[in-house]
Specification:
51% of the residues lie in helices and 0% in strands. It has helices spanning 22-38, 43-57, 62-73, 77-89, 94-100, 104-110, 115-128, 133-140, 161-196, 204-226, 249-260, 269-287, 307-317, 337-341. The chain starts with 21 loop residues before the first helix and ends in a 49-residue tail after the last helix.
């Protein structure tokens, strides 16, 4: 006797009884066909399933959607909520999760975790060639309070208490970060495309309609994340010192996006390529990096040199300081032999006509007026007496 496992065919759904329009019915049937075609639930298919369920949920009311996904797709409402949460909250980590082959069950737990915990879990999986459900549970249970499995992916607007509020904040943060990463990637791709396809020189008239709107979207997305806890009357298009220090790296990123979104702030045409390549692209790469602590790409400002440092550098440029090694005048050293044998440099030696009896190391303070070939500088000569008009 052979055992045959009969796969239950999805039941037909009565669209007419629930007054679902023709267009919504076509969209729901297309989603159901896509869900059935996915087959085995791999990591990538888990994200695809979540996206299909998210799209389908837009065509029916919440209560009707649970009936539809249960009857038409043979998926429980709880499982559907989990897959939707994966697509909605972990989309920014999709590439890494697929590469690491993270199981859907692990993804369900990560879907309600803070972003730093998701990052920790992925780093753990990279270092240990994967991560199991027990390991991700232990990672998430280190004092942080997460939503229970029953409310994972649910409509969080109806969940009360501090846990519901934290889940809403986490969801808003994740969606905001995902929006900034997406807009930042689009902006970076546009800049790279412009740099690779340029002719002799970048043309502002060509770049403005492409880069300006993308930069404004990226700046607004970043402002929404940076000012998540700011009062409601704060304009995300601007950041004051009270919201974010002007000395911080993130303020530099925001300011650069602000300048890129305003053509009047762009550098001149000859410096545009350098600015895009060495400032804009590097800052976008730093701001959207998956590295835990990416290195700041811009050089630190150089402090001005002190007066002594400037003088030393000037003397070094002129060949350095002339040093004359003279013997020690300490009578206790070498019995005066070094002092007696010392020969002064040529420019300090006595003229040949000087008396030999003079001490060899004494420089006579003689007048140079009668010495041949020497003249007093003009500024040492006495000025002629002024003639009185009387």
């Amino acid at each position: 006797m052979t055992n045959k496992t009969a796969k239950r065919a999805p039941a037909r759904f009565d669209y007419d009884a629930l007054d679902i329009g023709v267009q919504s019915k076509k969209a729901l049937e297309a989603a159901a066909a896509g869900i059935q075609a996915l087959g085995r639930r791999s990591t990538d298919q888990a994200f695809e399933l979540g996206l299909l369920l998210e799209q389908a949920s837009e065509h029916v009311e919440p209560g009707t959607f649970e009936k539809w996904v249960s009857q038409r797709c043979d998926i429980s409402s709880k499982t559907a909520r989990n897959y939707r949460a994966v697509a909605r909250n972990l989309n920014a980590f999709r590439g890494r999760a697929v590469e690491l082959a993270i199981s859907p069950t692990v993804l369900f737990h990560l879907a309600s975790a803070p972003e730093d915990k998701v990052e920790d879990a992925l780093v753990y999986a990279e270092e240990n060639d994967g991560i199991r459900v027990s390991e991700v549970k232990a990672l998430l249970a280190d004092g942080s309070e997460t939503a229970s499995e029953e409310i994972i992916g649910a409509e969080l607007a109806d969940v009360g208490g501090l846990s519901g509020l934290r889940a809403l904040i986490d969801l808003k943060t994740k969606s905001g970060v995902a929006a900034f990463v997406e807009s930042g990637a689009a902006l970076a791709a546009a800049v790279v495309s412009a740099l690779e396809s340029k002719g002799k020189r970048l043309q502002k008239t060509t770049l403005i309609p492409v880069l300006e709107p993308l930069a404004r979207v990226a700046k607004r997305s970043l402002g929404n994340v940076l000012l998540l806890d700011a009062p409601g009357d704060v304009d995300v298009r601007k950041l004051s010192e009270s919201e974010l220090s002007a000395a911080s790296h993130w303020y530099k990123v925001f300011q650069t996006l602000d300048h890129l979104g305003n053509r009047e702030s762009w550098p001149e045409a000859k410096g545009l390529e350098t600015w895009l390549r060495q400032d804009v692209l590097l800052l976008l790469d730093w701001a959207t990096s998956r590295t835990k602590k990416p290195e700041w790409p811009l050089e630190a400002p150089v402090a001005p040199k002190s007066a002594d440092a400037v003088m030393r550098s000037g003397l070094e440029a002129l060949g350095g300081v002339v040093r004359v090694e003279a013997p020690s005048l300490d009578p206790a050293g070498d019995n005066g032999a070094a002092f007696r044998d010392f020969q002064p440099p040529a420019f300090l030696a006595r003229p040949a006509s000087a008396p030999e009896a003079d001490a060899p190391n004494v420089i006579p303070m003689v007048s140079t007026e009668n010495r041949s070939g020497l003249r007093k500088p003009a500024w040492l000569k006495p000025k002629p007496a002024e003639v009185s008009a009387d």
